[in-house]
């Protein structure tokens, strides 16, 4: 049996120092022992709050290409992210976890439902608290004129982050796009093939000719828009 492993650490410092990675590698090695071999490893340095996982996308693509099982080192923390679970379930790739081998598709569905409910409950409590504060006359968020400059800075920072995410996604997906394109496929045909392979755009949507063109444009160092 072939395995593609996916490891994750929360901070850049952990990624550079290897803190946490060695324990995860030991866990996946113990799981693989006697079952097969690891053919590829992908390491994500991301906050658990972020939904976009470029290394996960690469891992799923490689697992599908190699006919391998995607082996997650620590599913317990990642399973709190609904988008993460959705990507796994929609990928068509067999998934297992070193820390929770019994986590089949049914268990993942339950985890996704629980995570979604928790997120909805937190959102509703936050909205209720903000409404109560507003009713008491408390000024909320950017309604304070003195914070206008902070708002502009936040908008600029958000745009930069979105662009960086789009570029990272383009870098991960472009090898697959180029492979399909090499066969003489049009932009529309490339989009159809990416959708058939269940590879998502940067925002988790379907591919179209325009989003494929964005990927090719980004590869040449030009502006890219997140799909």
From TrEMBL:
CDD domains (UniProt xref): Ser_Recombinase (cd00338)
Active site per the UniProt annotation: 10 (o-(5'-phospho-dna)-serine intermediate)
Pfam families: Recombinase, Resolvase
Keyword terms, alphabetized: DNA integration, DNA recombination, DNA-binding
Protein source organism: Paracoccus onchidii
Domain Resolvase/invertase-type recombinase catalytic, first and last residues per copy: 2-137
Name of the protein in question: Recombinase family protein
